[in-house]
Design brief:
single chain, Rossmann fold, alpha/beta, globular, two-stranded antiparallel ribbon, about 25% strand, 8 strands, about 200 residues, 6-stranded mixed β-sheet
Length: about 200
């Protein structure tokens, strides 16, 4: 089983990174001899989507549509393709995922998804290009907003879940909102992160 952890925080070794590591630890405790890879999106050259629609309009029968942009997403897409299990970790910036995580998700949407799903009266929403089933977990951190006010400042979890389900054919087994870490400390959430990792296995 291959686990890919995607970290959208611009700061290594801080709250988001620490909780992702704890989730990986929980996964390893249950999954045993699995391949685990963690990537920091800030380490890669990921350009903004140009909305050229080349990926969305692709008729490929393969699991990934080609993108017109040539950058590090080429290797990152291969890492996603090889994954069975995914962990997404990001702090919330103004309630949303970080800019680098959003850019990554935009570039994933139509390369891994194709038009074909109907939502309410809207047709052409993303449908996974592959039948390969995955599992995913989402970790979101906030420096000052406690969990009781999560609904007012966490749109990141829903954003990530949408791409994970619609494009990557993954079931989200759980999510963790680690709020007010500046006062509570990341230690307050370590056990929850560990248990979330266990659920992925």
């Amino acid at each position: 089983m291959n686990l890919l952890a995607v970290v959208g925080s611009p700061r290594k070794g801080k709250s988001t990174d620490t909780l992702v590591d704890k989730a990986i630890e929980g996964f390893r405790a249950r999954a045993g001899d699995s391949c685990v890879r963690k990537i920091y999106l800030m380490d890669y050259d990921i350009k903004f989507c140009r909305n050229c629609l080349a990926c969305r309009e692709s008729k490929t029968e393969g699991p990934i549509a080609a993108c017109a942009i040539r950058d590090d997403m080429e290797q990152l897409k291969e890492a996603v393709l090889d994954s069975d299990v995914l962990i997404f970790g990001t702090p919330v910036h103004m309630g949303y995922a970080t800019a680098v995580m959003m850019t990554f998700l935009e570039r994933i949407c139509w390369t891994f998804g194709k038009p074909g799903r109907k939502v309410f009266t809207v047709t052409g929403c993303p449908l996974p290009r592959t039948g390969r089933k995955r599992k995913a977990a989402i970790i979101v951190t906030s420096g000052i907003v406690p969990p009781v006010y999560r609904r007012f400042c966490d749109w990141a979890s829903k954003q990530i879940k949408g791409v994970v389900v619609d494009s990557l054919n993954a079931k989200v087994v759980g999510d963790l909102y680690a709020g007010d870490v500046e006062h509570r400390g990341v230690e307050h959430y370590l056990i929850k992160a560990y248990k979330l990792g266990e659920k992925l296995a």
